[in-house]
Structure formats: structure tokens, C-alpha cells
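Re: the 172-residue chain
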Amino acid sequence: MDLSITTLALLVLAPLLVWRVYTRIKARMTRQRSIVSRHYTGVLVFGAMIAVPAAQLLAQPYSLGALAVGTVFGIGWSIWALKRTRYEDTPQGYFFTPAARLGILMAMVLVARVLYIGVEIYANQGKGIPAPRLTDSPLTMLCVGLTAGYFGYYSAGLLRWRRRLRKALDHS
């Protein structure tokens, strides 16, 4: 096996990259202020992560089905995570603490799949094999659906929580 310096650097840096991504995601899974505009952004961004590939996959039923199944399971896990979330209405503002392990797991599923695709592209360099598109693999679409379904529905759940609080204040 002939290992080039670039391959060795990749082998050394990949675990460091994974650890860095993990620590950044973990840092976001702590108590945080509920900002309505961020929740709307989450719904829109993660909704687009589902809608854009779905529009491209109309002629690929397996990948479209994988995206749909991933989205359904992601929403299911999000429902469970919203029940485990701690919500706070304090004089300083509204805060929530997400179910950290579940959020980290959902984010790392997509990160791991993207890293795998990156390694695949690197391994096929110079072999005349075209680089895969994200929508080419049903497994990738499953991972996209899981992550986008989870975070999109989670954001929508936070919006519903804030709306209930507003209605309670209006009726007081």
C-alpha cells in the first residue's frame, strides 16, 4: 500500500475534524435563549434541506423514499426530544435546554455521511470516476431526511411553545 503525504495528513486530520465538529455541536446543545427569528430560520433552512432534494428526486423513487423515511423518523425523534426539552419562562427572557444527546446524534449522522462522501471523492481522484452528488445515494438522502426532519420539526416545536406563551399572556 502506497501512502502519500496527503493521505497520511488526511488520516491524521480527519479524527481531529470530527472531534472539532462534535465539540461545536455539543456546545450548541446547552441552555439557550429562545429567539423566534432563529426558530423561523430553522424551519425554513431545514425545510429547504428536504424540499430541494425532493424536487430533484422525483425520477428516483428509492432516493425519494429514503428522504421521506428519514424525514418521518427525524420528526418522530424530534417529537420525543421536544418532550425531553426543558423550557423556561424567566424575567430575563425565554430559554430552552434541548435533549443534548439526541441533537448531537442527529447532527453527527449527517456529518459522518458527508465525511464519508468526501473520503470517497478523495479515494476516487484520478480514476476517472465522477464525483457523487448528494442526491445520488439513498443512504445519503436518509441521513439528510433524518437531520433536516429532526431540526426542522424541533424549530417548529419551539415556535409552537412561544406561540402558546404569547396566547397565555394575551388571555391574562
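The chain has five helices and three strands.
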